[in-house]
Structure formats: structure tokens, C-alpha cells
Amino acid sequence: MLTPKENFLLAAVEHKKPEWVPNEMSDVIMYGGAFESFENGPAGGGLDGFGVTWHATESAGGQPVPGGKPVLDDIEKWENIVKFPNLDEYDWEGSLAMQAGIFGADRDQRVVEYGMWNGQFLRLTHLMGFENALCAMLEEPEACDALFAAITDYKIKLVERVAKHFKPDIITSYDDIATERGLFMSPGTYRSLIKPHHKRLNDAIKAHGIIPFIHTCGKCEEIIPDYVEIGTAAWTSAQPMNDIEGILKKYGSQIAVVGGYDTNGRPGLEEATNEEIDADVKRCMETYGPYGSYVFMGFRLMSGAGPESFMEGILPINDAVEKYKHIK
């Protein structure tokens, strides 16, 4: 019998049909993400390494959100204004020990995934605000391209340190370039301005022997072929406003889909009943489970902050996964 790690990699990386449907929320050790204070500010809120102010929240499931006066108001002046975090000042080994204490370190049984939040597009929005960032991409694409290149250079340095200290199987780059209705920009703008930098980061991850995933919430199905083209092993966290079944049918031999749970609907709310949770997990397993290249992922937005609240939200989801994961 396969270990959970072997079963997960069979679906997510080899794009084959696993023995059972893997579960991102139980089969993976998730490092990075909110623990990168240089990216998201310190716990409780404050400045990140770019000078952006972050605020701690409960309404966003404990996740920090950027706010305050934009750091950058003129994209053409970015070279004189934007500063990058000093990654050598970060306590890498201390952070690894702390996160391993919270999330575990059984690398033989579970996949080690490192989440790199705030990708190229998101960092631009954090520096400028969404409206100004989108206007800058339209009005000053050359300056945006240059800043995206510098952000990618910084991310590649981050990959080097993550590879050295965390030694993950997977690095997931987070770049939410879509809403629930569609992309923030045209597919053409994505392809000309953002895609080359996504590819260069993917290439750097693979150069360290690590598997690149990309996280994009919202309806981004138009650019799944682009994610395939730049060598992304899996797309996460796929939401059902996309044609997930169609994507698995057409691209499942080239890219895995991680997600499926209706995090945007009733099943993703704190007040969701066990019956609603059970029904949506069953829908995912029956609809997407028969395909290879599918990994279940589901969570709920809880009002409290911290790992304890997060775990409280996913426990009934994981219980339902155990019930239905062998459906073929």
C-alpha cells in the first residue's frame, strides 16, 4: 500500500490515478505562508520587508491584509522607492523548528509544501493598491514589467533559502490574479506581463529539484493552458466556478487540480452544517475523484485567528474525505 505521500505525488506530480483521492489538508505539511513576516508583517500586524503595513484580521480567517497609504504611487519611480526584504536577517532555522512543532515533520509519510505568498501581481497590488496597480499595468506596462522582473529576482533568492533550510518537495507560488467572475486583466495582458515571470520562477524552483505549484483563487480557467506551458505541476486552490471536470478531462495528463470544495459558498462558511459539508465533499469525490491528477482541498473561513481555529474548520471536512475518498 502506498504512503499518503506516495499517493499524493502519484496524482499531483505524475498525473496518474492514485489509490485513493489525496487530501491536501491531511497529506501535506504546509510551511511558509503567513509565517513569512518579511512578506506579511509580524504577527498582530505591522510593516513587512517592503514597507507595506499589514493588519491582523479575524474576518479573513486570521490572515493578515495590507492597508494604509500605498508605498508606491507612481510606477515609473519604483526603482527609487521600492525596497526588498533582507532575507539574511530572517531566522530560517528558528522558523523551521517553530513550524515543524505546529504542523509536524513526518517527511516520509507526508509531502512537504512551502507556500510563497504574494506573487508578482499581488505584490504590485500591495505596493500600489488594486486600482492603481491595474491602471499601471495598462498605462505603463514597461515599468510594470521591470518591477515584476525585480520581484522575481527577489523570489528566486527566496527559493534558494527555502531550498536550503526547509528542503520541501513542493513550492507553491501564490498569485491571485482572478476574481470569482474572471481574471483581473485580459488573458493577453497576463501572457505579456506576468506569465514570463511566473515561468522564470517555476524554472528556478525546478533547478533546485523542487516541484512548482501555483495557487490562483477565482475563475482563471482561461489561463490553465498557460500554467501547463510554463511547467506548473499543479493548480491550487481550484474553486468550482471553474469547469474543473472539463479541465481534468482536457489537461489532466499535464497538470493536476488541487481543490474543488465550494469555499465560496455555504460549505465554506463557519456556520456550515455537517450535512452541507458532507454533501459537498461527496460531490467533489464523485465528480472529480474518478480522474487522475485530482487532489481534494477544502477549508472554511473561521472567525478566530491561528492554527487552532483553522483546524476546527477543516476537521469535519477531513472526516467526510475519509468517508468518501475511495469512491471511483
Automatic annotation (TrEMBL):
SUPFAM superfamilies: UROD/MetE-like. The keyword Nuclease does not apply. The keyword Chaperone does not apply. One of its GO terms (biological process) is porphyrin-containing compound biosynthetic process. Keywords: Methyltransferase, Transferase. Residues 106-297 form the Uroporphyrinogen decarboxylase (URO-D) domain. One of its GO terms (molecular function) is uroporphyrinogen decarboxylase activity. PANTHER family: METHYLCOBAMIDE:COM METHYLTRANSFERASE MTBA. This is Methylcobalamin:coenzyme M methyltransferase. It comes from Acetobacterium wieringae.
